[in-house]
Amino acid sequence: MASLFVLVLSTCVFASFVWKLFREYLVESPLDRIPGPRPSSWLAGNIPQFYDKTGKYYYQFLREYGSVMRLSGLLGERLLFLHDPKALHHIFVKDQHIYEEAPAFIAINKVFFGEGLLSTLGEQHKKQRKMLNPVFSTGHMPPIFYEVTGRLQKAFMNQVKNGPKEIDMLHWMSRTALELIGQSGMGYSFDSLKEDAQSADLHPYSRSVKRFGGLLSGTGTFVVTSYILPFAANFNYPRLKRWVVEHIPSQWVRDLKEIVDTIQATAVDIYMTKQQAMIEGDDGKKDIISVLVRANASAAEEDRLSDEEVFGQVASLTFAAMDTSSSALSRIICLLGEYQEIQDRLRQELLEAKKANHGEELDYDQITSLPFLDAVVRETLRLHPPLGIAIRTARKDMVLPFSKPIKTTTGASISEIIVPNGTTLFASFYGANANPDIWGDDAHEWKPERWLKPIPEKVAASHIPTIYSNLMTFLGGSRACIGFKFAQLEIKIVLFVLLTSFKFVSGTQKIFWTMPGITAPVIEGDDITHPSLPMFVTALDT
Length: 542
Ligand code: HEM
Description:
- This protein has helices spanning 2-25, 46-51, 56-74, 85-94, 103-113, 122-136, 142-160, 169-186, 204-216, 222-233, 238-247, 251-279, 288-297, 307-338, 340-356, 364-368, 371-383, 429-433, 436-439, 457-460, 484-499; strands at residues 79-82, 99-101, 165-168, 389-394, 398-407, 413-419, 424-428, 502-506, 511-513, 521-523, 534-539.
- It is 54% helix and 10% strand.
- Bound molecules: protoporphyrin IX containing FE (HEM).
- Protoporphyrin IX containing FE (HEM) binds at residues 117-118, 129, 181, 185, 316-317, 320-321, 324-325, 328, 385-387, 390, 473-475, 479, 481-483, 486-487.
- It comes from Leucocoprinus leucothites.
- Heme binds at residue 481.
């Protein structure tokens, strides 16, 4: 019986390939009749020369992801890489309703996180943002942030009280980020942040999310993520779906199922606790989901989210907040380990602010007004965006204009490009944030002090889709990061607490940062599915 289902499933997948190829190659697009240059091959080796002046981002991207790209090209996908500001403005702002989230991503998110912001499109997504935007602007977070970071500080102190020690910063930043979103987002504790907790003691959610990226990357999983998951996400017979999944004889499928189950079970647990608290009249909690549940209960009928949609936000927010913030924090501390003079200057600013505040923790206004802390955070998020790309799919034949002509591999100069319906577009945040045409010749250097001066006129005039400092790090337009203020505050408070107590020095091993997905540090020679960032930590004499 199980093999019959596998056979039916494979036939459906095969039929969908054939239909795709037929649609791409045999059905004429109106754009085919328009004369004009277009890449001779949408895939092949032309990607770096054609779309990337710097080369750096795409070469690494292709090295780590190249086989997936080639396979998707063979299957008839059209892929377009770009970072031109005008083109990006069209994709994420002007014509954002045409350039939608790639179907495979929406499907993966739906399977794993339910009906939250990460997996909805169009009017449903708009409705969810309308309900959630005010919830995020309430800014009650500092006290709980300090409670969590206080535990982190204690855990570090216990480890280094007898002298400097090499500590995996990524491990600790991930645990801290999860506990921060758990406590301030859901009023839920994922991690006690005890220093002696072993991997097996961590919350199952934490272990599951860590395995999620690794299991879903690589050529082997490409067909599943691009074709089977979209099919599964829209197959609305949950019992049958579960039965099929349980009978597929594959360890990989069993692992994925376990991850989905853990993420969903955690979200259910959190959501049910909230509902119960509401019933019992405990409605004073200020975490994001409690505020959302209350706002939803009193919203007009047409604006109200369903239970599935509120529940979907729990898993979506936890996932969206965890690895992004911990990646950003790890990168900043890694750079401060390399640039000791910048670490000293930053520490001095933080210690002076603490002293001026009589040794007390800084409130929201105080911490957000520290100029050098802000400069270090901005510069790191500019040059090293935790998420390197946004992927969109054109839902109509379009023509995409460039701000200045670019050369094709055949040597022709073009100032716009034809984008047929179905083309997948990869927008490079790194390419846009470090574009020398906008940021100047030192665009690729990490220089926090650039933020202490007025930003170049060209930056302000670039019209990059943005909600943060003319950078694409948190994107712009209707799908921009809803947690960008939360993330900045969290990063600043963790840095404040750690740098006023400890000194950080680079570890002995060489580190490189992976690029597709959320960037993560890996020791050179280690498997990229096991990221880590060992650094020497010393307690300060204060
Ligand atoms: C440094 C940390 C962070 C970075 C760099 C970041 C970046 C981004 C980016 C680039 C997107 C758009 C992705 C796309 O559409 O392709 C996004 C979306 C999102 N982020 Fe963040 N994020 C961060 C932290 C957070 C935090 C802390 C939260 C929650 C508290 C959060 C919640 C979300 C949500 C829910 C979305 C989906 C928004 C939508 O589709 O309407 N993020 N983030």
